[in-house]
UniProtKB/TrEMBL annotation:
<feature type="transmembrane region" description="Helical">
    <location>
        <begin position="16"/>
        <end position="42"/>
    </location>
</feature>
<dbReference type="GO" id="GO:0005886">
    <property type="term" value="C:plasma membrane"/>
</dbReference>
<keyword id="KW-1003">Cell membrane</keyword>
<feature type="transmembrane region" description="Helical">
    <location>
        <begin position="72"/>
        <end position="105"/>
    </location>
</feature>
<comment type="function">
    <text>Part of the tripartite ATP-independent periplasmic (TRAP) transport system.</text>
</comment>
<keyword id="KW-0997">Cell inner membrane</keyword>
<keyword id="KW-0812">Transmembrane</keyword>
<feature type="transmembrane region" description="Helical">
    <location>
        <begin position="117"/>
        <end position="139"/>
    </location>
</feature>
<dbReference type="InterPro" id="IPR010656">
    <property type="entry name" value="DctM"/>
</dbReference>
<dbReference type="InterPro" id="IPR004681">
    <property type="entry name" value="TRAP_DctM"/>
</dbReference>
<protein>
    <submittedName>
        <fullName>TRAP transporter large permease subunit</fullName>
    </submittedName>
</protein>
<keyword id="KW-0813">Transport</keyword>
<feature type="domain" description="TRAP C4-dicarboxylate transport system permease DctM subunit">
    <location>
        <begin position="5"/>
        <end position="163"/>
    </location>
</feature>
<dbReference type="Pfam" id="PF06808">
    <property type="entry name" value="DctM"/>
</dbReference>
<dbReference type="GO" id="GO:0022857">
    <property type="term" value="F:transmembrane transporter activity"/>
</dbReference>
<keyword id="KW-1133">Transmembrane helix</keyword>
<keyword id="KW-0472">Membrane</keyword>
Length: 184
């Protein structure tokens, strides 16, 4: 949904922040109405919800369960940003520290969780940096022989609107890409 809002903001020349702020109230209203619907459904339709109340648990059991959840990491990250302790980079560092503490509090699976975490971090890092490195190499390959310099001069020679200038140069690329992409 975020991507659609960004594309909409760019195409209509609207502030992206304004669109995101405008989406808060409908999103919260939808969440509240879904929760209310589920509560009413479980209350009035027999067999949908739990049949009996769960047994009471101690505070220690609740704390151990809390430290096994992802929500505590989200709480730490969002708390860091909302309380003004730090920006996104510092919040990510606090979230990483919280995840490390959670792993250290689970001695039974510590090695397996740490190994899987390192593999996931490596995969995510390579997925982020591969396009960045590829873009840099592609840019260097184009600018070294000075391929892109005549293109703007050639395109500005036509009397085209902004929409035509941005859509037409990319149309051959889309058509050629659709010819080698597999069908869904």
């Amino acid at each position: 949904m975020r991507g659609l809002l960004i594309l909409y903001a760019i195409s209509t020349e609207t502030a992206i922040v304004g669109l995101f702020l405008a989406g808060i109230a409908p999103g919260l209203l939808t969440a509240v109405l879904y929760a209310l619907m589920l509560v009413l459904w479980a209350k009035f339709v027999p067999g949908v919800g739990p049949s009996e109340r769960p047994a009471p648990t101690s505070l220690g059991d609740k704390a151990r369960t809390l430290f096994g959840c992802r929500e505590i990491i989200l709480l730490v990250v969002m708390g860091t940003i909302c309380l003004g302790i730090g920006m996104a980079t510092e919040a990510a560092a606090f979230g990483g520290a919280a995840a490390l503490l959670i792993v250290l509090m689970r001695p039974a699976n510590r090695g397996r969780i740490s190994g899987r975490g390192l593999v996931d971090v490596g995969a995510t890092t390579s997925c982020v940096f591969l396009p960045v490195i590829g873009t840099g190499l592609f840019g260097r390959a184009l600018t070294t022989p000075q391929v892109p310099q005549p293109l703007p001069e050639w395109l500005t020679g036509f009397d085209l609107s902004r929409w035509q200038l941005t859509s037409h140069p990319s149309l051959p690329i889309w058509c050629s890409a659709s010819s080698w992409m597999p069908a869904p």
